[in-house]
Design a protein that fits this description.
Elements lengths: L72 H25 L7 H24 L5 H25 L4 H21 L7 H28 L9 H31 L6 H27 L4
Helix pairs in contact: 1-3, 1-7, 2-3, 3-7, 4-6, 4-7, 5-6, 6-7
Length: about 300
């Protein structure tokens, strides 16, 4: 089973294309159960044992690798900070260098759409790669930042000057709330939870694609899923879906650390978290635009 972002499919931490959190036996307090580690590939694999368990409790296979060779929460935090920092820097540059006044609006929008498409392509390529590519992930973040910078500037200029700070605050609040709920085990990521979120996300994306097609060929807002009362409803649903995917992201990180994932996997965690946060931010921005009376 592959883990997925609301927009882009991405590989989870399981080497057998399975979701690490959904093995029949879950990691216990002392580490993963013997025989369930998704990184275990035989006696010669350094990940076949729990890298955090005492040496005399590890059964079968060689000794675990040094702690610096496996993913830690510090690695995930550092890579996520780098990726989100890249998004922020390029968004700020786009905000100031690509004006959205009437004389330059068309040009700036064109560059933003082009950057968004490039970011989409980079994300798709990374999603199908077996290993994380830091350069590709940072390139995705850079182009995504350009797209967000222009869109945010336009919303701030033509809708509400306070829309962007409100969307950022909303995104941070959702992140903090889901993290607290996950750590307190109020949210439990199970196979059923995963299946429900994936089904809901696919339905949501399909509806948005249909709405986009109707708006392109029929004009206006298509079926009305992004304006008025329906727009508000779908905006809230989009934010809730983003929160659910944050829970999946946290589960991936937790399982990756528990199973002794290679350190390079922290880039995939940063990649997934960045895409989810971008999704939530865009939904907040759109929702605020509707509430301000101008979609």
């Amino acid at each position: 089973m592959r883990s997925s972002n609301p927009v882009f499919s991405r590989r989870g931490f399981s080497r057998d294309n399975g979701y690490a959190g959904f093995n029949a036996q879950q990691p216990q307090a002392g580490g993963p159960a013997v025989g369930t580690n998704p990184y275990a590939q035989g006696a010669g694999n350094p990940y076949a044992t729990n890298p955090y368990a005492p040496a005399d409790t590890q059964l079968g296979g060689p000794q675990a690798p040094a702690r610096g060779n496996v993913m830690t929460i510090d690695d995930v935090v550092a890579r996520t900070a780098m990726t989100l920092g890249t998004v922020f820097v390029t968004a700020a540059l786009a905000w100031f260098l690509l004006p959205v006044d009437e004389a330059n609006l068309g040009k700036s929008y064109g560059i933003a759409i082009g950057a968004g498409l490039v970011a989409f392509v980079f994300a798709i390529i990374q999603s199908f790669k077996r290993k994380a590519s830091p350069a590709l992930i940072l390139a995705y973040a850079a182009f995504e930042g350009v797209f967000l910078g222009v869109i945010s500037s336009a919303v701030s200029t033509y809708v509400s000057a306070g829309a962007v700070p409100q969307a950022v605050l909303g995104t941070m609040s959702v992140f903090a709330g889901v993290l607290i709920a996950y750590k307190m085990r109020w949210i439990r990521v199970t196979r059923r939870f995963y299946g429900f979120v994936m089904a809901a996300a696919m339905g949501f994306v399909l509806l948005m694609m249909v709405n986009l097609l109707f708006s392109v060929f029929g004009g206006g807002d298509g079926l009305g899923f992004r304006s008025g009362g329906l727009g508000i409803l779908f905006g809230v649903i989009g934010i809730i879906l983003g929160a659910c995917f944050l829970a999946l992201d946290f589960k991936q990180v937790e399982d990756g650390i528990a199973y002794g994932a290679p350190r390079e996997e922290s880039w995939l965690a940063a990649f997934g978290l960045t895409m989810t946060l971008v999704w939530i931010y865009m939904e907040f921005l759109r929702l605020i635009s509707i509430l301000q009376g101008n979609d």
